[in-house]
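JOB MANIFEST
job_type = single_chain_structure
chain_count = 1
residues = 219
[input]
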Amino acid sequence: MRKSIASYLILTVTICILLFMSFSTSETIDLSKYSTSGLELNYTVSQDHSVKDNAIASIDLNKPISPILGKSFVGFKEALAFKESRGDYFTVNTLGYLGKYQFGVNTLKLIGIHNPKLFLNEPELQEKAFIANTARNKWILRRDIKNFVGKKLNGILITESGILAAAHLAGAGSVKNYLRSYGIDNFEDSYGTTIEYYMKRFSGYDTSLIKADRKAKAI
């Protein structure tokens, strides 16, 4: 009985203390002390008057937003990857071509990759493979790049990026045949995509970052 009374008293005292503390700290804050009136305000980002008021409201939030890569090298490789696989590192097509850039097993061997399973599960290795293969193709086609860039074949302006994209599609040898036949020998892959189509679609990108390398390896 005594324990019950003691517990009740302790609980009552505790509640009273908490109520006292809550009322004693409820002072009014004078917000006028924090006014910015009369201050010169500086911003790290200037106002862009060229942006319309409804620009943000017009954005479709259901669509993915990606940076504008333009005609940069990154723009080149990402555009090519989207055409090849929609940018999927882990896909294999019906003919057995692998990954984001759709490499064949024989091409991988040429750049030092002998384990297709490892390749398919390593995005970083796939990026290295694309760089190495493009550098190797640039070396093989160095004379053709020098002789044909800036000319037109079948109404298509020949550019270095178009040549390198076509070599990724069909191999450097097929691109040589196309150029040296002045557009007559137009290779077509199993899905009906031609060298000429890649020449046109991937024209005008900056591929100067890639240095021609006969012995380029991904590993």
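[summary]
The chain is about 45% helix and 0% strand.
Residues 3 and 120 are 72 Å apart (CA to CA).
exit_status = 0
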